[in-house]
Design a protein that fits this description.
heterodimer; A: 376 residues; B: 307 residues; 11 helices; binds flavin-adenine dinucleotide
């Protein structure tokens, strides 16, 4: 057992560190039109340096970097205070789904533009009557010449107000219930029949959107996997959302170190000492846990229900960390833009990507083997 | 980087589990609490045959020259089975104390046991009535016991004795190895408490359903599993880096996770868990005692934050 990093990865990390030190910008919130545009430019700049999707194959704009190198990249990225990724739904959810279930044509057409931030993707999963219970979704698709016609309503879609395209499940077999008869589609947010209505979030910015679809044509080429197999395809996406890829350990260790610095700069208040220490301990635990996962995957292991353990842990770590920072700041917290932004975002952690309760059910039933609860 | 146990380390853990499962460890532990040491001594001799006290002692002194990762693998198993006796002192601490060098061959072979005093974190010496070696960790010398009177512990299996030592201690490699072993022991105890609770929730029914079907129970156990899963890499990581910050982080998190496991286990078991006959109690009191021993939460959190 060792934590040694090979020379090639050290060289890669040093290159990343140097590049970031010279290039990291300060950008406005990506939940505004102006901020979104600025983020797109930043993603293009990252792509020029071949740093936007380091773990992808070269042909799609990546570097074939190992999983370990990806983790090192993320650590450097957040330690440098670089901005959140406006293309994260695409590169961390749709990307892996296409690698697992897409066709070569889809990968060639979609991934390079995604890597450059030219095409930004929104996740269109939730519906008014289908939140935690995604299998209850009602939006549907019916067969037509050369493709499908999509109808229905999606909601809570992050940054769909500014994004270009979206991915989500639709019921293609009205005779089937629940997880059966669903198909995974990609569609254009500017296509005829699509209406996007922005919904302001807690901070007042239009971070959410509702998407209404009325007979929207989608060609067969934009179905991922086989029609009717959407649920299986979607599980790849969900595991990626909860698991390794979306919440890199770098984010939390960087934030925990900033919290320790904040605590010191405010005179090391004794009242918050334990919480500051616990935040750092949690972030370090998460980092080492990730190194363990990386080692396991490198040896051919798979991500299973552990991704729920991951999600439950980091969402609370993030919340506790930001709560502690606001408490240390006292009345100054109200106007500290960086900590406030992080805090508001951390509040959503226990909700999106599967709520705490859903993660706990998954851990209990699939990891611990407790009996399933009776469902109607 | 390969941050995962080797097949040999996993085999070592399995052989310890197999041995301790077949050796009536709970019976030996209960006798130990009453001062009847023979079944426990036999258990410890078996562990010596498997190499536990020899791990950190170099080959020149009759040991195995293994590393701290092997140590935490062993102590996780010892904690899981609630093995009694001064094992942290004998297998983790004494091998790092030069003054005890003459004793190393005897400790490695299991002929001798060591105990330690290191105020303020280890004010009393465990099992000093049967240990041949008493280490005064602050002074780095061998000490001696004074009384033979047991000082009652929250955990009946921890038989504590007063030892004259005036030398306060806050760190050092030998101390850190003790802390690391305690953290691993806590992790193991927590894992047993979770496993026992899951097994119980799958067979106990109330209101016509297995209690494991109720979300109120499921969610408690899911939280325990999550915290234990995230504790293990801290304990392993601290064994690899040996940094005081990582070792303290492991101790804090292992104490918290094991205590959550203990409180949850008691709740899931209901009254049966509150009986002396049930093995749950052997871990519950040990976990609470070890959470404060070898540096409490306050001390270790301060070390985590030290520049
Ligand atoms: C910041 C943010 C960004 C988001 N971005 C997107 C996005 O880009 N795309 C997208 O599609 N969606 C997005 N979502 C939506 C998110 O996926 C849903 O909010 C989430 O799945 C929960 O659904 P819900 O809000 O309808 O809550 P509900 O499912 O209605 O749940 C309400 C409460 O009931 C509990 N509950 C529900 N079922 C159970 C059960 N079986 N057992 C116990 N408790 C239960 C829940 O845990 C919760 O506490 C986002 C949400 C947030 C907050």
């Amino acid at each position: 057992m060792d934590l040694d990093i090979d020379a090639e990865s050290v060289a890669f990390r040093d290159e990343v560190r140097e590049w970031l030190a010279a290039h990291v910008p300060t950008l406005p919130s990506m939940d505004t039109a102006e901020g979104f545009a600025a983020h797109r430019e930043w993603e293009a700049q990252l792509a020029d340096a071949r740093l936007s999707v380091v773990s992808w194959p070269r042909e799609y704009g990546g570097r074939d970097a190992s999983l370990l190198q990806w983790v090192l990249f993320e650590e450097e990225y957040y330690a440098a205070g670089a901005p959140g990724r406006v293309s994260q739904n695409g590169i961390f959810m749709l990307g892996p789904t296409l690698f697992a279930h897409g066709t070569a044509e889809q990968r060639d057409r979609i991934l390079p533009a995604m890597a450059r931030g030219e095409q930004v993707w929104a996740q269109a999963w939730s519906e008014p009557e289908a939140g935690s219970d995604i299998a209850a979704l009602r939006s549907s698709a019916v067969r037509t010449e050369g493709g499908w016609l999509l109808s229905g309503q999606k909601t809570w879609s992050s940054r769909a107000a500014f994004a270009d395209r979206a991915f989500g499940l639709f019921r293609t077999d009205p005779g089937e219930r629940r997880h059966r008869g669903l198909t995974y589609f990609m569609f254009d947010l500017r296509a005829e029949g699509v209406t996007v209505r922005p919904i302001p979030q807690l901070d007042g910015e239009p971070g959410f959107a509702e998407i209404f679809l009325d007979q929207v044509f989608v060609p067969d080429a934009d179905v991922i996997g086989e029609p009717g197999q959407g649920w299986r395809v979607a599980m790849t996406t969900a595991n990626n959302e909860r698991g390794l890829s979306l919440r890199s350990p770098g984010r939390f260790l960087a934030a925990a170190n900033r919290l320790v610095d904040l605590w010191r700069s405010t005179g090391e208040p004794a009242a918050s000492r334990d919480r500051v220490a616990d935040a750092w301990i949690g972030a370090r635990a998460y980092q080492l846990y990730t190194f363990g996962t990386v080692s396991r995957l490198a040896e051919g292991g798979q991500l299973g229900p552990e991704s729920s353990v991951n999600k439950l842990f980091w969402s609370h770590l993030d919340l506790g960390l930001h709560d502690t920072a606001l408490d240390i700041l006292g009345p100054a917290a109200e106007t500290d833009r960086a900590w406030v932004e992080g805090y508001l975002f951390s509040l959503a952690g226990p909700i999106y990507g599967g709520t705490d309760q859903i993660q706990r059910n998954t851990i209990a039933e699939r990891l611990l083997g407790l009996p399933k609860e009776a469902r109607r | 980087m390969r941050f995962a146990l080797s097949p040999e380390q996993r085999d070592f853990a399995t052989s310890l589990h197999d041995y301790l499962t077949g050796a009536d460890t709970p019976g030996a532990t209960r006798s130990w609490a009453q001062g009847r040491h023979e079944p426990g001594r036999k258990l410890l001799r078996g562990l010596a045959e498997l190499g536990v006290p020899a791990l950190l002692i170099d080959e020149a002194h009759g040991g195995l020259g293994a590393d701290p990762v092997d140590l935490v693998v062993a102590f996780e198993a010892l904690g899981y089975h609630a093995v009694p006796g001064p094992l942290v002192e004998t297998a983790a601490v004494a091998p790092a104390v030069p003054a005890a060098q003459a004793w190393w061959p005897a400790l490695a072979s299991g002929e001798a046991l060591a105990t330690v005093v290191a105020p303020p974190h280890v004010p009393l010496a465990l099992d000093a009535d049967i240990a041949q070696v008493v280490v005064d960790l602050g002074a780095g010398t061998l000490g001696e016991t004074t009384g033979t009177e047991v000082v009652g512990s929250l955990d009946p299996t921890r038989r504590l004795f007063r030892v004259p030592s005036a030398t306060p201690l806050t760190g050092g490699r030998a101390f850190d190895l003790g802390v690391l072993a305690v953290a691993a022991q806590l992790l193991g105890a927590g894992q047993w408490l979770l496993d026992a609770s899951v097994a119980y929730a799958k067979q106990r029914s109330q209101y016509g359903r297995l209690i494991g079907e109720y979300q109120a129970i499921k969610h408690l156990l899911a939280d325990v599993a999550t915290h234990l899963e995230l504790t293990r890499p801290l304990v392993h990581g601290a064994a690899v880096t040996a940094s005081p910050q990582d070792i303290s982080a492991a101790k804090v998190k292992a104490g918290d996770a094991a205590y959550l496991a203990a409180r949850t286990a008691l709740q899931v078991h209901g009254a049966i868990g509150y009986t002396a006959e049930h093995d749950l109690g052997l871990r519950l009191t040990k976990v609470r005692a070890l959470t404060g021993a070898w540096g409490d939460g306050r001390f270790h959190r301060e070390r985590v934050l030290a520049r």
